[in-house]
Amino acid sequence: MRDIWLRTARLGFSRWTEADLPLAEALWGDPRVARYLCAAGVFAPAGIQYWPLFLRADGAFAGCCGLRPAAEPETLELGVHLLPACWGRGLAREAAEAVIARAFGPLGAKRLRAGHHPDNGASRRLIEGLGFRPVGAVLYAPTGRMHPTYELTPADRR
Known about the structure:
Layout: E1 6-7, E2 11-13, H1 21-28, H2 31-34, E3 50-55, E4 61-69, E5 75-82, H3 91-104, E6 111-115, H4 121-129, E7 133-140, E8 145-152
Parallel strand pairs: 5-6
Antiparallel strand pairs: 1-2, 2-3, 3-4, 4-5, 6-8, 7-8
């Protein structure tokens, strides 16, 4: 039985366990998911991670959504990775909205950052649709390209 600690209309958020290795491999091992990602991990303080997502209707694994530390104090970075079977259904937005509420609520973040590979139009549309403002671009060493960067504050949500 999976421990679901946060629910949306269609998704349940859990925490990774050692038994989830096949799920992680299915997600990040899929070249359609991984083509815009770098697998280098970042240490996350207690209470934040890219939480695994499960469809409430049937319990199927959908991907992950969550937070990781950003370079600036009181700032977290939002990320969403879904299996291709879950693309185009509004699940990324649903998951991101729940994580944003958690970041600005119980976690007390002052701002969120998000970014995307310059060729990933779906991520750009998601980030902009969530209300993030463009704040520039950063050189992302794993790709050697400038990646657009966005910011969201609680004031932007009003």
